[in-house]
Design a protein that fits this description.
single chain, 361 residues, alpha+beta, Rossmann fold, OB fold (Dihydrolipoamide Acetyltransferase, E2P), six-stranded mixed sheet, six-stranded antiparallel sheet, 24% helix, 34% strand, elongated, binds adenosine-5'-triphosphate
């Protein structure tokens, strides 16, 4: 049986004057999914989410919630809810009054409201005593949890999040990322989240959409986007990466103009080959490169000089400069540290299974 999408966007666009901020997007989001839209500043993430919750009108296109068209339904009548970075809590009210606000709108009886509010405090792992606490007395992380509890009190079909963690410090953000993922599992709700932080997207999401210039460049699960990016833009956006310029040969192989880059395998068998005359880049993540001793080889081998070494805590990062002055980044776990002197000659290798090819027309 085909899973039905809870939300379907059909050719949606948004223009501000002659500027197209969202360009003809088609997308299906499924029931219970944690779907994250990630992209650089100005790529159109906020504009898109504002369209989805009804805070802004579409220029063209249609939005369907469980098959019913909702793009002409005002935001307050849609069964969806948004959690903002600013949280939009009522500062003069208590935590309990904030959480109960949507329940009051639904005309729920006071005792039932309190009961529901206490249940939500428990779900968000806040003590019952917080019910009476004023918002101004809560820490950043506690306010964030209250905002989530209030959003859940609306009992929305879909919860939308607009960079809710970006104002928080690193440690709190890391904790709340995991809590949000956990909350998603416990509630079974559909979460649609936007962020410019790739790490945040990778920790929490079932699927990630990479947005660029008002369009989606790639939509997939995080491993796929990390290991098999469809473009140089996605590869670079998804963290540290090494890109080697190559071109195709007659037998669907690869060649490189770089005399220090050796191809010791048959790229056509490794599904890395390109057609004759077609250019592309081989994508290799820093953790997939290894330092080779004289007796070792690999499917792809290159040489350079150790330029710098950086301790990253559990890992160490190395910068290797090639003869053509390209910088190659290698990362090793701390216990597998490479013991080399800065300026010394090194040979690096990687195997076909840890590489990915992007064809560039
Ligand atoms: P950020 O991560 O910085 O919030 P974003 O990906 O959310 O960026 P948007 O805020 O959606 O990007 O903006 C996308 C583009 O649309 C930007 O170039 C922005 O200047 C433009 N834009 C957004 N809102 C308006 C508006 N009301 N009028 C004119 N242009 C706008």
């Amino acid at each position: 049986m085909k899973v039905q999408p809870i939300l379907r966007l059909k050719n949606i666009s948004k223009a501000f004057g002659s500027f197209q901020a969202v360009k003809d997007i088609n997308l299906e989001i499924f029931e219970g999914e944690f779907f994250t839209i990630v992209g650089p500043s100005g790529s159109g993430k906020s504009t898109l989410i504002r369209l989805l919750v009804g805070m802004d009108d579409l220029t063209s296109g249609e939005i369907y919630l469980r098959g019913n068209r909702i793009d002409r339904t005002p935001a307050n009548l849609r069964p969806t809810c948004m959690v903002f970075q600013s949280l939009a809590l009522f500062p003069h009210m208590s935590v309990g009054q904030n959480i109960e606000f949507p329940l009051k709108l639904k005309k729920m009886a006071p005792n039932d409201r309190k009961q529901k509010s206490l249940e939500l405090l428990d779900l968000l792992r806040l003590p019952k005593s917080f019910y009476e606490k004023r918002i101004s007395q809560c820490s950043g992380g506690e306010k964030q949890r209250v905002a989530l509890a209030r959003a859940l009190a609306f009992d929305p079909e879909i919860l939308f999040f607009d960079e809710p963690l970006s104002a928080l410090d690193y440690r709190l953000r890391k904790t709340l990322e995991k809590e949000l993922k956990n909350l998603h599992l416990r509630t079974g709700k559909t979460f649609v989240y936007i962020t410019h932080s790739l790490e945040e997207a990778m920790v929490m999401s079932d699927r990630i959409a990479i947005m660029r210039g008002g369009e989606f460049e790639q939509i997939s699960v995080s491993d796929d986007i990390y290991e098999r990016p469809v473009s140089r833009f996605v590869a670079e956006f998804m963290g540290e990466v090494n890109l080697f310029e190559v071109s195709g040969t007659k037998k669907l192989g690869l060649k490189s103009e770089n005399p220090n880059f050796h191809i010791n395998c048959d790229p056509s068998k490794a599904k890395l080959g390109l057609a004759d005359g077609i250019g592309g880049v081989l994508v290799v993540r820093p953790e997939c490169l290894r330092f080779l001793t004289n007796s070792e080889s690999a499917d792809f081998v290159l040489t350079g000089k150790l330029k710098a070494e950086y301790a990253l805590g559990s890992r160490t990062q190395y910068e290797i400069e090639t003869a053509s002055q390209n910088i190659i980044t290698v990362e090793k776990l701390r216990e597998d540290r490479f013991m080399g002197k800065e300026g010394s000659k090194v040979t690096l290798g990687f195997d076909a299974e840890s590489a990915h090819i992007i064809e560039e027309l």
